[in-house]
Every structure is written in C-alpha cells, then in structure tokens.
Write a structure and sequence with these properties.
Sig_transdc_resp-reg_receiver; binds zinc ion; alpha/beta; globular; 5 strands; single chain; Rossmann fold
C-alpha cells in the first residue's frame, strides 16, 4: 500500500456535479403530479357567438379566455401562449388568417394547435392546410363537435406544422 498517497478527485472534474445537470426532485413529490389544465383562447368578434362558446367551455375543465379580434388575440398569445387557439376568420383589425400567420411565424407560439370556426369557409378550403390549421369547423357547428375538436387538439398538444409534417392531417374535422 503506497503510504502518503491519496487519490484526489477535484470536484470540478466530477460530471455529476455539473450545475447544469441538476435534477429537481419533483418526480417523487405527490403534489407535483400532473394536473392538466388546458388553457383555451377563443378569438371571436361576434358577442353572441363568443358568449355561446365561452358558456360551453366553462362547463368543461378548460380554462377559457376570449379575444375580441386578431390584434387582441395576438397580444394575449404573446403575453401568455394558450394550449389551444380557437379562432374566427372574419374579424376587424386583424382577421383569422393574419392572426394564424403571426402565431405560426413566432417560434414561441408556432406549435400551438389551432382550430378555425367560420361561416365563410367550406370544409375543403385549401388555406386551412396552407396556414397550418389543425381543425376546421364551419358555422353553425354543433357544440359537441366543437368540444370534440378542441379536446382532440388539447390531447395532441403542441406539434410542428412544416410542409413536410403530417402530424395533424387526420384532424381536419368537417362537421356534417
Ligand atoms: Zn396541427
């Protein structure tokens, strides 16, 4: 046994001590268990339709807020990105297409699932795919179909919308 020699491991060489690799103990903490609260933003300028939509979603576990037009919606999204966006197309100041374009162009919001609800579109409108719309609902749309679409999008979560992506191709819901 070599006397007087001791192995030394400087802390700085210990990979487990790297400050960037610290793990939070949250996984074992029962209080941190998944509580799924889905935040839905509804962009709708029509007061009556907005009221109907909000009333419908308030009976669910969704946390819902409303924007009165595209400008208002974009401000809300930049402040705090929702989990799902449900937007009308015909709105003052900024319409739904311009809103979707802005949302998809910003990396902080690019992958948010987006559903469109509109009376001006036909189900096969090519702009839905071009702009990266995940679900297209045509007014009037039965409540259960709106709910079903939003629930599917919430379950799907954020996902990319590049041209090569087919992640949400199956979700272009067309009401009967
Ligand atoms: Zn999508």
């Amino acid at each position: 046994m070599p006397a007087g020699r001791r192995r030394r491991r400087p802390h700085s060489d210990d990979p487990g001590r790297s400050p960037g690799l610290r793990r939070e103990p949250a996984a074992d903490d029962p209080d941190s268990r998944e509580v799924v609260v889905t935040v839905l933003l509804v962009a709708e300028d029509d007061e009556d339709i907005a009221a109907l939509l909000l009333r419908m979603f308030r009976k669910t576990t969704f946390t819902v807020s409303r924007a009165v037009d595209g400008v208002d919606a974009l401000r809300a999204i930049r402040e705090s990105p929702p989990d799902v966006l449900l937007t009308d197309i015909g709105m003052p100041r900024m319409d739904g297409w311009a809103l979707i374009h802005e949302v998809r162009a910003d990396e902080r919001s690019a992958e948010i699932p987006i559903a469109v609800i509109s009376g001006q579109l036909h189900p096969g409108d090519p702009r839905a795919a071009e702009y990266g719309v995940c679900a297209l609902l045509t007014k009037p749309c039965p409540n259960e179909q709106v709910l079903n679409a939003i629930e599917q999008l919430a379950a799907l979560g954020r996902h990319p919308h590049s041209v090569a992506t087919i992640a949400c191709r199956g979700l272009h819901l067309i009401p009967a």
